Amino acid sequence: MTGRDRADFAEFVAARSPALQRAAYLMVGDVALAQDLVQEALTKTYVAWPRLRDKGNAEAYTRKAITTTAIGWFRRRSWKGERATGWTPETAVAGHDDHVAQSDWLWQALMTLPARQRAAIVLRYYEDLTEAQTAEAMGCARGTVKSQVSAGLSKLRERLGPDADLLPLHDLVVTR
Fold it and tell me: What letter does residue 167 receive in the DSSP assignment?
């Protein structure tokens, strides 16, 4: 790798790491595991960097590495039990208790989904990727993304019960 390639890669890492970290956290639900996941994905991206024709696709390549690696981890490991979030709010604001309760309630339901369903929902609705971009990141067909999202949203609605109406889950079914 040339000096310019290293500099380009370093710029990419500095610019995109926070967003990649957030997406990884939503997929694995643990700060330390998300950091490990991003590190592993960035290592794979670094190795592939000289082969990337369009450096503008580096983020898509890295997201795919994050997604496939996370799914692989879930297949090999049994991640059960409670995990510390590693985050504590500094100050309280009006309505904060309700927001935290609702976020935690949705978070717990999201963490019960299988890895592929969770990844599809995170990529589609948190990262706001299209079905095609999500399919590319997951290494699958668009139809698989549709079925994983549909099954995941159905499970979320089932787990959340009548309270699911409080969330805009019906809006999430709209496809691009």
Answer: T
Q: Kindly give the confidence (pLDDT) of every residue in the chain, 176 residues in length, as a single tens digit, with 9 standing for 90 and above.
A: 777 788 999 999 999 999 999 999 988 888 999 999 999 999 999 999 988 888 888 999 999 999 999 888 877 664 444 455 555 555 555 554 554 455 677 778 888 999 999 999 989 988 889 999 999 999 999 999 999 999 998 898 888 777 666 554 444 443 33
Parse the chain into domains and list their residue ranges: 1-77, 95-176
Q: How many CB atoms lie within 10 A of CB 106?
A: 18
For the domain 95-176, what is the CATH code? 1.10.10.10
- DSSP string of 128-152, one letter each residue: ---HHHHHHHHTS-HHHHHHHHHHH
- How far is residue 114 from each of residues 57, 134, 155, measured CA to CA in Å? 28, 16, 10
Residue 69, SS3 per DSSP: helix
Using CB atoms within 10 Å of the CB of residue 146, give its burial: 0 to 12 exposed, 13 to 18 middle, 19+ buried: middle
CATH number of this structure's domain 1-77: 1.10.1740.10
- Same fold across 1-77 and 95-176: no
Return the half-sphere exposure (C-beta side, CA atoms, 13 A cut-off) of residue 63. Answer: 27
